[in-house]
Amino acid sequence: MYEAGIHYILGLNIENGYLSINPCIPKDWKEYSIRYKFKNTQYNIYVKNPNSKNTGVSSFKLNGREIAEKQIKLVDDGKINEIIVEM
């Protein structure tokens, strides 16, 4: 059940070495965060919902840089990375 909540509600998906976020949340959730660790690398993920949406990602940024594909390849570089997703 925990895994289903992470995947289907919070939208965290790891597949073939790529991380994506595709939330399905209540409209009144304004934001939430997830900390994900891949080997020696940490990903701090912040999901913002200023338009009170249930689903749909309008912006995906990694360390301030817009990622058009809305997913990233997981890298074990020992760094702390920040992902900001806006719905």
Give an account of the 3D structure.
This protein is mostly beta strands and 87 residues long. It is built from 1 helix and 8 strands; from the N terminus they run αββββββββ. The chain has one helix at residues 2-9, and strands at residues 12-15, 18-21, 31-38, 41-48, 59-62, 65-66, 71-73, 80-86. The strands form 2 sheets. The protein has a 5-stranded mixed sheet, with no helix packed on it. A 3-stranded antiparallel sheet has the order 1-2-7. The mean pLDDT is 96.
Task: Provide a concise account of the structure shown.
This protein is mostly beta strands and 87 residues long.
Strand percentage lies at over 45%
Our Rg estimate from Cα atoms comes to 12 Å
Distance between the termini: 24 Å
> Structural class, from helix and strand content?
mainly beta
The overall average pLDDT, rounded, is 96
- The coarse overall form would be globular
**Number of helix segments?**
1
**Helix-residue proportion:** under 10%
Strand order of the largest sheet: 3-4-8-5-6
Series of secondary-structure elements, N-terminal to C-terminal: HEEEEEEEE
Number of strands: 8
- Low-pLDDT sequence parts: none
Biggest sheet record: 5 strands, mixed
Topology, please?
Elements: H1 2-9, E1 12-15, E2 18-21, E3 31-38, E4 41-48, E5 59-62, E6 65-66, E7 71-73, E8 80-86
Parallel strand pairs: 4-8
Antiparallel strand pairs: 1-2, 2-7, 3-4, 5-6, 5-8
Any key phrases for this structure?
8 strands, 5-stranded mixed sheet, 46% strand, mainly beta, 1 helix, 87 residues, 3-stranded antiparallel sheet
